[in-house]
Inverse folding.
């Protein structure tokens, strides 16, 4: 938030020059240049020291200069005691004069100095003291200069917000904005409006927070590092860790340029939290240590405590990951516990209950880790309930610690209830986002709680409990959120610009990678992508029917699909677990270490890349073919325990990197229908939901494919009353319309997966690329989408485990099934396999057996694996 403080300007004619210089110093302070302000003020005060205080205008200018000096000294040196003492003496002298009726003085002095005290206490983190001073200032607001009145209201609003007294903060900001608007104080009006956006963060309404902050920023053009800092805090709360970290770093650089070490320290704390969330405990400790050093050098002891807490949290994460479990480790946990207890007490003394809660949770975790929690029930009682006003990360931390204490007390069912309560908190938190980008990013906050949920389930040894736990985690995403804001003309313009850049980049493909034009296009493309995504963050979400699927529902569904097998696969603590469900019941399988399996998956995809490249020499292609066969056999040996036990139809439910396993290409699955579903709920919802005959079939072809238009016409010719869109007919707008309407959509086009920004994975159409970001969950989507394109079945796994890509976005918008390639797909292979699959589909086969048969027939003839996969449900 944006605290500020300085008394109003004065203007006795004979003091005009001094007043002007103080006004310039005030501006330097307001714009973040306190060192310059101090250099301007010292000669002014030397001049004023020679002038008696009998004239109220002299008092006003002297007090104004001293208060600006106090501000600049506090920001650059961490202390302004001597200057503040001079101001207090001026207040006492004026009070004495009034009591003796010897002079009227300047009425605005007392509230101005009280407001300064409040500001400095606020900047030092002493909230209770700050509130006392600011309440005093506001009590005398009728005597205050207009600028001082606005500032004391703004700063008191900040204090109330930090204390989570949101109603009082909202009232102070609104009154500050009203007064600033009436007086023409544009900067203060901006700060009040910006801080009202910050209140939305504390209320958990993150889209509204971003929208308000951006609206405020438009009223005051220019670089405002405090606005960047607050925006980064919102992005971190939303789970956009990488974007938040970059924004913190940008704000820190600007604060450093302005010689504001305290604000740099707050940015470093933000970066420490980003590093902690993404699992980089060493970086988290380094950032927190830098912050502590900056705060200590300034004497900001309250913030030293907060930075120390960040270091302790990083230490605990490093200890938790330590492989050994010995006496030395227990001693290190004991040290963490002792230091956390001291930090907890200091946080309570400085009026920071949420910081104290984090420290208490850390202390309890350390005691549990070293086996020193003698009375977990009593500890749980002392920990108290989870405050609803806490940030989501703190709430989930507290829920997890409560569950661990319940387990230590032997109350497993109570532990489960705490875990479920935390998952409901996360579900509600993420449901507030209409943006798919934010919904998937928010998963990062729930990883520790999800791990505990799965730990509780595996401890039972019951496969149904494990399947239920995995599905609870997957259900948190819920709903069918919009990907792009509807009918947003600004987003439409930005997308048009991005399409033009993609076309320009295609024209530069023959130039060397060092060509500066390519670098410029890449930078411009990334900037546009960020702006487009940022606009989607303002879209508000809603709770949906996102109940987790249950194992009992799976048993009932399988009774309606004789011979079908469902396998739910997950990585847990470095091990791959699989629950196999078929007509005989559910079984839990431990499939071994995750690391070698992940390496085999990576190698298989690399081999498919080589085999799809016609420019690779024959001997290298032969080596890649042998490597591919070995990799698939290795995957088969690991996964065979859950895919080899019969069953004509296999539905694999897998997320994260396990969704990238080429399940349909495993030796045991050749020629057999295989579907990879994002969740059991998706399979239950869509399996068999499509009509026997589709309402509409449309085949389209993008430019640049040798057989693309021929493929579209052949596919359309297989279906009665189907239509083919080729040439200039196959536009982005037409395809978006089709992908929001029932039926079957087949698209033959160049495809591209963007690993760093998967929502901008695309397929190329007549007027440019169609991005995954443009797809919208607000319509009635097709039952089946067939993407005859390279690699658009790939996904990028975000921190927290959520996977995004073109196919996965289509499934999230409500499409029942998507056929897509997980590797480059040769043009001649696509036309053969796709037309055969559509022929079988038309003749009554479901999509999974149709594709399995078509790819097996092609493999038998050509000897080449076809990297096509059915994602979703076997419609």
């Amino acid at each position: 938030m944006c605290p500020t403080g300085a008394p109003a300007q004065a203007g006795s004619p004979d003091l005009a020059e001094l007043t002007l210089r103080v006004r310039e110093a005030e501006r330097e302070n307001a714009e973040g240049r306190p060192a310059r302000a101090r250099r301007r003020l010292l000669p002014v005060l030397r001049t004023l020291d020679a002038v008696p205080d009998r004239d109220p205008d002299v008092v006003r200018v002297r007090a104004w200069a001293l208060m600006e000096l106090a501000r600049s000294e506090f920001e650059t040196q961490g202390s302004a005691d001597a200057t503040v003492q001079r101001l207090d003496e001026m207040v006492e002298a004026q009070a004495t004069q009034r009591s003796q009726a010897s002079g009227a003085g300047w009425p605005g002095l007392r509230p101005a100095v009280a407001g300064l005290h409040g500001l400095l206490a606020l900047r030092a983190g002493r909230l209770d003291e700050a509130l006392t001073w600011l309440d005093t200032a506001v009590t005398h607001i009728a005597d205050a200069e207009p600028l001082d009145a606005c500032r004391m209201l703004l700063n008191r609003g900040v204090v109330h917000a930090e204390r989570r007294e949101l109603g009082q903060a909202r009232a102070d900001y609104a009154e500050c904005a009203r007064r600033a608007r009436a007086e023409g104080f544009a900067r203060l009006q901006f700060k009040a409006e910006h801080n009202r956006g910050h209140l939305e963060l504390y209320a958990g309404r993150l889209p509204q927070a971003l929208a308000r902050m951006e609206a405020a920023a438009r009223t005051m053009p220019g670089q405002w590092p405090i606005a960047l800092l607050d925006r980064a805090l919102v992005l971190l709360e939303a789970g956009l860790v990488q974007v938040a970290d970059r924004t913190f770093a940008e704000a820190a650089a600007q604060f450093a340029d302005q010689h504001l070490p305290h604000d740099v320290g707050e940015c470093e704390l933000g970066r420490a939290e980003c590093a902690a969330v993404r699992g980089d405990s060493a970086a988290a400790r380094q950032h927190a240590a830098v912050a502590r050093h900056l705060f200590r050098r300034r004497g900001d002891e309250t913030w030293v405590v907060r930075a120390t807490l960040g270091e302790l949290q990083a230490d605990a994460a490093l200890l938790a990951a330590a492989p050994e479990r010995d006496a030395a480790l227990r001693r290190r946990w004991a040290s963490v516990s002792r230091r956390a207890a001291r930090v907890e007490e200091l946080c309570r003394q400085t009026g920071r209950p949420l910081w104290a809660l984090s420290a208490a949770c850390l202390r309890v975790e350390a005691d549990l880790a070293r086996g020193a929690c003698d009375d977990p029930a009593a500890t749980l009682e002392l920990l108290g309930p989870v405050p609803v006003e806490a940030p989501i990360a703190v709430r989930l931390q507290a829920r997890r610690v409560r569950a661990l204490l319940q387990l230590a007390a032997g109350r497993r069912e109570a532990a489960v209830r705490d875990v479920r309560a935390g998952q409901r908190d996360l579900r509600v938190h993420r449901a507030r986002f209409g943006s798919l980008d934010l919904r998937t990013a928010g998963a990062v906050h729930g990883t520790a709680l999800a791990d505990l949920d799965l730990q509780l389930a595996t401890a039972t040894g019951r496969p149904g409990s494990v399947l239920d736990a995995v599905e609870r985690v997957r259900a948190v995403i819920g709903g069918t959120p919009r990907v792009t804001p509807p009918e947003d003309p600004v987003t439409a313009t930005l997308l048009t610009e991005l399409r033009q850049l993609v076309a320009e980049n295609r024209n530069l493909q023959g130039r060397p990678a060092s060509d500066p034009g390519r670098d410029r296009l890449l930078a411009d493309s990334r900037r546009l992508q960020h702006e487009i995504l940022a606009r989607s963050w303002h879209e508000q979400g809603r709770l949906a029917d996102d109940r987790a699927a249950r194992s009992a529902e799976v048993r009932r569904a399988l009774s309606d699909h004789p011979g079908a097998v469902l396998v739910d696969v997950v990585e847990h603590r470095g091990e791959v677990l699989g629950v196999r469900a078929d007509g005989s019941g559910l079984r839990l399988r431990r499939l071994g270490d995750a690391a070698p399996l992940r390496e085999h998956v990576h190698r298989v995809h690399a081999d498919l890349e080589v085999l799809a490249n016609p420019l690779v020499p024959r001997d290298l292609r032969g080596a890649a073919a042998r490597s591919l066969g070995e990799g698939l056999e290795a995957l088969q040996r690991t996964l065979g325990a859950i895919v080899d036990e019969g069953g004509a139809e296999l539905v694999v439910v897998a997320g994260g990197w396990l969704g990238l396993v080429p399940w349909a290409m495993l030796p045991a699955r050749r020629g057999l229908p295989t579907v990879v579903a994002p969740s059991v709920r998706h399979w239950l919802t869509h399996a068999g939901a499509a009509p026997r005959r589709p309402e509409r079939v449309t085949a389209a072809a993008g430019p640049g494919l040798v057989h693309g238009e021929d493929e579209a016409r052949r596919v359309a010719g297989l279906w009665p009353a189907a239509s083919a869109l080729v040439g200039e007919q196959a536009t982005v707008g037409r395809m978006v319309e089709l992908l929001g309407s029932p039926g079957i959509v087949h698209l033959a086009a160049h495809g591209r997966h963007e690993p760093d920004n998967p929502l901008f994975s695309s397929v190329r159409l007549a007027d440019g690329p169609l991005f995954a970001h443009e797809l919208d969950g607000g319509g009635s989507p097709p039952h089946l989408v067939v993407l005859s394109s390279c690699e658009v079945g790939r996904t990028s796994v975000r921190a927290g485990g959520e996977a995004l890509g073109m196919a996965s976005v289509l499934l999230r918008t409500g499409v029942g099934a998507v056929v897509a390639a997980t590797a480059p797909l040769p043009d001649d292979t696509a036309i053969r396999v796709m037309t055969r699959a559509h022929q079988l589909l038309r003749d009554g086969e479901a999509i999974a057996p149709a594709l399995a048969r078509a790819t097996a027939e092609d493999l038998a003839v050509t000897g080449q694996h076809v990297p096509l996969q059915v994602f979703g449900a076997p419609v």
